[in-house]
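URGENT: need a sanity check before tomorrow's submission.

F., can you look over the AFG1-like ATPase record below? I want to be sure the sequence and structure line up before it goes out.
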Amino acid sequence: MRRGVRCIRHFLPAIQRQEYNHSFSFSRSQRNWLYANCVSAYGHGVDGRVLCPEFFISRALSADVAKVSPSDVTRGGPLVEYERRIAAGELVDGDSCQVGTLRELQRLYDEIVESADACRLDRYSTSDKSGRRRWLWSRLIPQSSYSPVKGLYLYGGVGTGKTMLMDLFYEQLPNNWRKRRVHFHDFMLNVHSRLQRHKGVSDPLEVVAAEISDEAILLCLDEFMVTDVADALILNRLFGHLFCNGVILVSTSNRAPSNLYEGGLQRDLFLPFIATLKERCVVHEIGSSVDYRKLTSAEQGFYFVGKDSSNILEQKFQQLIGEQTAVMQQVEVVMGRTLRVPLGANGCAYFHFEELCDKPLGAADYFGLFNKFHTLALDCVPIFGLHNRTAAYRFVTLVDVMYENHARLLCSAEASPVELFEKIVTISDARQMAPRTSTRSMRKDESNLCVDNELGFAKDRTISRLTEMNSKEYLEQHAAMLAIN
Ligand SMILES: Nc1ncnc2c1ncn2[C@@H]1O[C@H](COP(=O)(O)OP(=O)(O)OP(=O)(O)O)[C@@H](O)[C@H]1O
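Structure tokens as predicted:
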């Protein structure tokens, strides 16, 4: 069967459903992709219209086909879409490292499209046995079906465009495929909550893996990072089952696989996961040192430093909530846990730093919070060091969750984002600093130095994100998102 025809088959159920409902809602890139495959399968007439025997495909395409030149789209995928976005002024022309990474993603895209049947990516052609039923079935007939396509583990410096590139790749693949894109924190929270549901089963991880792979064969995880011993101890078995069920993992991270969970408790039990990861994924370092957040962000000004910063924050918050008076209210955030939230109108919440980051709260609580609120005013963010290392971890997580939810942050802080983290260093930073610790004054100053590899790496991401979250572009996107909702 010709490649184009095979690809179109994946689109047919969705097109038929949309034809039935008299409304086609493909994005432009999906239409380009479909058009490219139709051209390659059936050819096109002089006016550019595809010569497709399925009249509803021609109708699905007819709205846009005149604007798309056949030569533009003979090959779909992330590379074409990246070029289109640059031409449209949505992206700046990236450095050679971004283009090199895109080539990896294009290679993966081509492989996946080519092996879509073998990978069982089409949601509508897969078995209706799901979750526990499927697991019981597999007990009777043991099955092992590693994907013929290896995934991709993409790592590198902050703001270099890893997430943007992975999303671009993800969006080019058809919506009726079993695919899922999720932040790593969110993914692990979901795994733990599924594990709770299957408590009595002899191997709950196997059931959970069966459920996840039933829903998604292509799993795109943003920001792979392991800081939690509970996660570290289950990852190898979880992903062992997932890969065995044919899952293809695409992931972004700031850390190379070998550096994941560095210095963590019981790391020796985690090491087999690194080997599994390297076996099932092509590992690619983006290699760029360009932080696009700094290139594209113009400061807007919701980050307040200095003596009066708390007052300014309060005034800004009051402006946001208008005439309303903030009222304290108990709000359920996650799994029955509640937070006492000083509520304002318009989905805005106000917290003192200690209430959110110096209490036993974690990613689950923050995700719950930003399901309900889109804006946070955070008062009195301190300079971090050895004395408040745990709070620093929570602040990093809080910023990650806010960024993922595209939430707006207003904050008053003791210092600029870079200065907040000056005392948090990696082991190699600490070694470079060692000769300078000889004088008495330096020793005193560095008693608060926090040598922590995980935090030392994560801080760059947080600084970069705080800068972006304070930019005009980010705040405009936030406003646009609110307008849609
Ligand atoms: N070529 C580009 N043109 C314009 N903006 C870009 C480009 N590449 C990346 N960006 C923007 O830079 C910001 C950072 O990109 P992204 O979040 O993808 O980086 P990252 O490498 O995943 O960062 P982190 O490691 O912090 O998660 C985003 O707002 C993204 O849209």
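My own read: The two ends are 44 Å apart (CA to CA). Residues 63-74, 438-442 have pLDDT under 50 and may be disordered. If you see anything odd, call me.
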